[in-house]
Amino acid sequence: MFRNVIHFPSRPGGGRHLQPLAEIESYWHVRAAGRPMPERAEIGPHGMEAALPHALLLERIAPGIGRLRLAGQHLRDLMGMELRGMPMSALFEPEARAELAEAIDRALDLPALVHVDLSAAPGLGRPALAGRLFLAPLASSAGRPKMLLGGLVVTGAAGRTPRRLGVDAVSVRPLEEAPGPSRCDTPPPAVEPANAGDAGVPERQRPDAARPALRLVSSGA
User: Fold this and answer.
1) What's the mean pLDDT in 146-163?
2) 3-class secondary structure, 100
3) Would you say the pTM of this structure is higher than 0.85?
4) Is the pLDDT reported for residue 213 higher than 60?
5) Residues 145-174: what's their mean pLDDT?
6) What CATH number does residue 80 fall under?
7) I need a labelling partner for 68 at 20 to 30 A (CA). Which of 41, 44, 164, 177 fits?
8) pLDDT > 90 in the chain, percent
9) Range of the domain at 62
10) How far is it, in rounded angstroms, from Cα 57 to Cα 221?
11) Residue 88 belongs to a domain
């Protein structure tokens, strides 16, 4: 449905808002430590604290279908509800869900780093939105990867919720072509750290287990 690489159109001020995604991508590279990808057990909040409100953890439960195992406050504000356990497609317009499904499959099957350019049209009590989704695969001891570390940034007032997003463009960067973090615009000032209860991993797996952070809520998987 889309080519391996699609260049995103530039957007005024985009770099000021994409810093959380740059931080999550850099964190993924650090955790990979020269390997194709890090393992799920190596992922925790320490090292990307400022980006936690935008972070997500996605598990593929069927081809093209990803269930949110973790969702930061930014995602919950966008939908006006708790998202853990819900399909990622709940954040998207019906006509955009096939492109989202292919992005999830490309990220896991190639594997690849995927960026998705997003927008939401204005409506009554709902201003226009623009944003970006980042997805990166996580290794599994059971075989092929089935989980993704990601992030979502949406700019503009959410207005009446829930809001659903459309897909404008997709960039797929196979891991053999991704030796380090991708370029982004000039980083903005640091984002305020997330509340410690927003997202995370089990206590025994956290690199910073000595201090309260985040907990992973399993939705039956």
Assistant:
1) 94
2) helix
3) no
4) no
5) 95
6) 3.30.450.20
7) 177
8) 65
9) 51-177
10) 13
11) yes
The verdict on residue 163 lying in a domain is: yes
In-domain check, residue 110? yes
Q: Quick one: tokens of 95?
A: 């006509």
Structure tokens at 221: 């998987």
Which is nearest to 171 in space by CA: 184, 155, 162, 159?
Answer: 184
- Residue 196's φ and ψ, nearest 5 degrees, are -65, -15
| Count of domains forming the chain | 1
Distance, CA of 56 to CA of 50 (rounded, Å): 13
DSSP one-letter string for 18-57 = -HHHHHHHHHHHHHHTTSSS-BGGG--STT-GGGGGGEEE
The alpha carbon dihedral of 134, 139, 142, 143 has a sign of positive
Asked if omega into 162 is within 30° of 0 (cis), the reply is yes
